[in-house]
Amino acid sequence: MFPNVPFGFVTQRGGNMSACRKKLCMIMMLNAFVCLLVCVSWSLRRHKGGRHSVRIPSKRFWHQQEKSKSFWNKEQQRLDFIFNPIVNSLLSSDSLVELPDWLNDSGPPDPCQPDEKVPMQIMDYNSLPKGFQDFLLHMRCRTYPMLINQPHVCAERPFLLLAVKSMIPHFERRQAIRETWGRAGVVANRMVVTLFLLGNTSPVDHFPDLLGMLDHEAELHKDLLQWDYRDTFYNLTLKEVLFLDWFSKHCPHAQFILKGDDDVFVNTVGIVGLLEGLSEKKAKDFFIGDVISDAWPNRNHRLKYFVPESVFEGRYPSYAGGGGYLYSGELALRLHNASRQVVLYPIDDVYTGMCLKKLGLAPEKHAGFRTFDIDAKYRDNPCVYRNLMLVHSRTPQEMLTIWPWIIHPELDCQ
Prior knowledge:
Its cofactor is Mn(2+). The protein has 14 helices and 12 strands. It is of the alpha/beta class. It folds into 2 domains: 71-137, no CATH class; 146-407, Spore Coat Polysaccharide Biosynthesis Protein SpsA, Chain A (Alpha-Beta Complex), CATH 3.90.550.50. The strands form 2 sheets. Strands 1, 2, 3, 4, 5, 6, 8, 9 and 10 form a 9-stranded mixed β-sheet that branches. A 3-stranded mixed β-sheet has the order 7-12-11, with no helix packed on it. Strand 3 and strand 4 form a beta hairpin. Helix 6 runs parallel beside helix 14, helix 8 packs across helix 11 (329-339) and helix 8 (236-250) packs across helix 12. The protein starts with 11 loop residues before the first helix and ends in a 7-residue tail after the last helix. 31% of the residues are buried. The model is unreliable at 1-25 and 42-62 (pLDDT under 50).
């Protein structure tokens, strides 16, 4: 447009054009301001005349949550209110929010005393298995005395902590694990620590008195953790939350945790190799296993996983099969905090899925975790186990057979 004028040189004509633009902008802004005044004035006149005035809602903006018909869901609704920061701030600010009567706590002052009101809240309570009834009566209790502790077992900050769910009579299983995949010390140049998680036995469950043998085992191996609660299938969730609490106090620097039953076989060498390749970002929310998705509660009262609709309604979140799963120590600390906001549930792996969901996470499926076993035709193939991370279930004798297949370098699996 101005071929003879170099860049940056303002001509007289350009200066006049800039001034014009400024005047035009000022005129447009003035017109907009006048329009705004007219609109406000018109609105005020209509409001004063009583027509189309702003209506103040007669109802409170906070809608009280409808009471669930299922016992667990109702308990969870109560916890959600307790831990909801928005509700707490509204209540503390003397707002119009009021909690419905059914959310008020009517349990015993001591949460570890049996809640005698539970049977009246579950219509088919008397038809439930005795262990299930016991769980429901003590569902709010989360603190139990520790009988055997190993407070210094993680002094060397293990890379991998193997936390194995066991029971007092399972001496043979624990010893087989110690001699195979749970051998503590340095594995593949990484520090590995093994712990067995135990509750207590009760005469009503028809267990013999084995405490003398257990004390000897604890002194000999120094790898047992035991709490004084009734060790039943329905209390496996309690074992989970007690372990997370112990971990947060005594082993918070362990980088990874493998949590599994005492009848699984674990390729510890393969696990360490898998973990060494993780980035720091990936490790933060790391949780893998044999994932079950879109599952509903089992309503068959003949199965041990039976949960009636009177106790729980809805679909389960995605969860990893409780036979064994692998997650980061950092995530374990967050799960510990999340578990305080989730009501105990009688199926431990589902409960862990609930805690993950509370954190906005879900477990990741890994093909190497086979909690429902592998095809029979592959079970005696040594090379198959080289590519697995965990398989359920195996006897102590089978563990002793399989472990050499993992550690012997002369095995050719090309």
